[in-house]
Amino acid sequence: MFELLIFKILKNISFFIKNSVMVPLPSSISYMWNFGSLLGLCLFIQIGSGLFLSLHYNSNVELAFSSVIYMMNDVNHGWILRVIHANGVTMMFIFMYIHIARGLYYKSYKLTLVWLVGILILLLTMGTAFLGYVLPWGQMSFWGAMVITNLISTIPYLGVTLVEWVWGGFSVSEPTLTRFFSFHFILPFVILGASALHIIFLHKYLSSNPLGLPKTDMISFHPFFTVKDILGVVLFLFSLLFLSLTEPYKFMDPDNFILANSMVTPVHIQPEWYFLFAYSILRAVPNKLGGVIGLLMSILVLALFLFSNKSKSQESVYYKSFCWVQFTIFMLLTWTGSLPVESPFLEIGQCLSVMYFLNMFLLMYL
């Protein structure tokens, strides 16, 4: 009986090594393919640091802000855990956007199931990040939650009911914070499961490559690509620690260091930088429902690439040129989203929003 158990364990270990460490990959893969493994490392850092922070966090509206201050000042090494958790999500979104951009540039959307699960991971990550942004219960946390959850009210017939269900009442209050904390704790494990599914599909259909050639010249992941991944991991950890130790609050809004006050509205309510491109599209549409649709489509438009031109040739000069145009539009939308809702920034955002979707459709059918 014991020998049979040992045999099964060894068999499972052999299967894992064969299907992960020794998986065949195209020999032409460059460092642009490192960001998938870096995202996995980011996820584990976020889960690990978040578990320790959750031990000291209190979701009561009277104590939430104080519990964050307590973590920073009185918990041993609590300050470094908090800034690593906060800056880790910044690094994670940087890597995620580069990962998606690489997928578009090299037409990785031809791997249908891999692409679809990747979009699901993006949506789950954005939702988790928004829920976490509310937890410190600062001014921007409270008003950001108020504005974003109110968007649900645009849903015909059910909108108001759904908003009240999300709030747990008739305004953003303690039940809202408790629910957000619960979902923020659970969703990372859902993302972990989706990431495992993402990797399973990737290993089944095999990775794309910069040359777009048939999958013939294959080499094993270890040791040829583990060296590249280790180099990326070292650079990432150095960057995260450098940012956390020298500029720990670089990407945090100053208003969020003020206790939430429902009677004082911030001058300029805006989300974190990684949502600004979608926020710019949201406010570019005068109609509230239209803005919400534009917000959702700014992300879901990626799924439409499954119906695009899937020619094997990846050397189209026009296609790659428009990829760089799309990158420029994305950066400009992020910039306009950080600016006040006034002329000429509003008009610039509207023009860029039209260009964003137009260029996406050009990429699909070039």
Automatic annotation (TrEMBL):
GO molecular function, one term: quinol-cytochrome-c reductase activity
Residues reported in the UniProt entry to bind heme b b562: 85, 184
Residues reported to bind heme b b566: 99, 198
Source species, domain of life: Eukaryota
Topological type in the membrane: Multi-pass membrane protein
Cofactor(s) annotated in UniProt: heme b; heme
Biological processes per GO annotation: mitochondrial electron transport, ubiquinol to cytochrome c
Cofactor note: Binds 2 heme groups non-covalently.
PROSITE patterns: CYTB_CTER, CYTB_NTER
Domain Cytochrome b/b6 C-terminal region profile: 211-366
Gene Ontology terms: cellular component: mitochondrial inner membrane; respiratory chain complex III
Sorted UniProt keywords: Electron transport, Heme, Iron, Membrane, Metal-binding, Mitochondrion, Mitochondrion inner membrane, Respiratory chain, Transmembrane, Transmembrane helix, Transport, Ubiquinone
Keyword Mitochondrion: yes
Location (main, coarse): mitochondrion
Domain Cytochrome b/b6 N-terminal region profile: 1-211
Bilayer-crossing regions: 38-59, 79-100, 112-135, 141-168, 180-201, 221-245, 257-277, 289-307, 319-339, 345-365
Residues annotated for a ubiquinone binding in this entry: 203
Compartment list: Mitochondrion inner membrane
Subunit structure: The main subunits of complex b-c1 are: cytochrome b, cytochrome c1 and the Rieske protein.
Described purpose of this protein according to its UniProt entry: Component of the ubiquinol-cytochrome c reductase complex (complex III or cytochrome b-c1 complex) that is part of the mitochondrial respiratory chain. The b-c1 complex mediates electron transfer from ubiquinol to cytochrome c. Contributes to the generation of a proton gradient across the mitochondrial membrane that is then used for ATP synthesis.
Annotated family: Belongs to the cytochrome b family.
Protein name: Cytochrome b
Gene field: cob
